[in-house]
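WARN retry 2 of 3 for item q-0093 after timeout on previous attempt; input resubmitted unchanged.
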Amino acid sequence: MLKKLLSLLSDALVYGSSTILAQLINFLLLPLYTQYLTPQDYGVVAMLAIVSLVYVPIANLGMSNAIFRRFNLVKDEAERLQVLGVGLVTVVGATLIFGAICLAASRPLGIALMGERGFGHLVAITVVYAMLESVTAIPMAALRADRRVKAVAVASLGKLLVMILVTVLLVAVVQLGVLGVVLGNLIGGAVGLALFVAFTHRQMRPAFDRALWRAMLKYGAPFVPHQIQAVGLVMVGQYIVRRDLGLHDAGLFNIALKFALPLAFVIDAVQKAWVPFKFQIHGREENPAAFFRTAITYYTVAMAYLWVGVAAWGPELLRLMTEAQFHTATLLVAAVATISMCRGMRFMLTTGMEFNDDMRAVPVITFVGLAVVIAGCLLLVPLWGASGAAMGTAAGWCVMAALGYMVAQRKYRVVYQWPIVAGCLLVAAGMVSITYASQLFLDLPGRLAVALAVSIVYPTIALAILCTSTEDRHRVTRTLRRLRSRLLARGDAKASPPALDDAAVQSNVPPELN
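OK item q-0093 returned
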């Protein structure tokens, strides 16, 4: 069990390392960016993101999901190449058709998103970037299905570093404002596509088989409305903030998301590793449900701690790293971090839903979740401002988690450790509420004291909750003993001078003389 968990963690770390350096650089450059970009500029960037986030799943037609499924059904390499070829032809064709439509409609799209004229050229550039991202999804899916995580890491890192370097040059040196951000994305996307194609060019051979295409489309197509609605789950709150409160408040919401990035980043890295990993576990292990049960318990404990940490320390980093005009976003960090936490739990608790070909429930669940988000945001934004949008969005993800869990359990039953999972989530939610109150009522020393306290109290309580399970108590005890033994061994090695004992002498004797 531990070896499998470490294997999943290894994949997640490699996927994460592909973006962590670039994300860290981008994060550290926020003091620079906020000198040249206003909250309104960040609001425009957030609205433009809707274009690419909606475009990619439509043009993909669920082919990435179908590739994951087919790679675990077929073992012959020729059949796998056929799957990739069909997916490639389908996505390239859909990308060109949908791209032409969106480019023709770039001006009205700009008015619909920003609420005013003058943004059509930015929308058009973003559409071209989305076309590149759409095609990139196929070679990326091929690498992920093969669990070639290092190749994904290298290509993703190269893309992101180029994107950041070009954006810094265009925003800070040339001072193009939002146009610099959009052009930086475009150039980075082109480099990313070239890198992913370089890693998979031997596999990327156009092909078409009508029966295979229909089977892949049947499996993948239900994911399209699901993915589009998932974009709505992420972005509709920001859009309602823009519509009701303006681009300035939408920009503050966008900045708050950047300081909740550690939680979103880790959740996304685990999610990328989990998709191919769970298919392999399901196909090869005798009792995969036991592994899923344990993995999701430890995932919950760890992610809840990160949620508390982001809510506690994120606002202080925001004050430290941005201009004063952005500081009101500190009151949004805890709320937007809650979105990521709910999204991560939804993804993990629906494990098993993908283990058969009937995916009709997926778009229905997402539609219900989106309806909850829209209703929640429309109700809460007038009452609580941008924080209301965050809480309305989090509510939608929670509803999706509950519905997805019920469907997944009917397809593939996993008996979760609910007392531990629910206990850790409730404790973490209490800690996050305390940190939010500290932002409202305390000065800097008081806020730092609260942040330090919750950072210590949560893991202590979570460990106690985890140890209520005999199995987990033994696992934690064994781990602590191993760590203690290693620490003691290192301490003894440092305290004692090097010596050549009989065992060492014996190990240096040639085998033929032993």
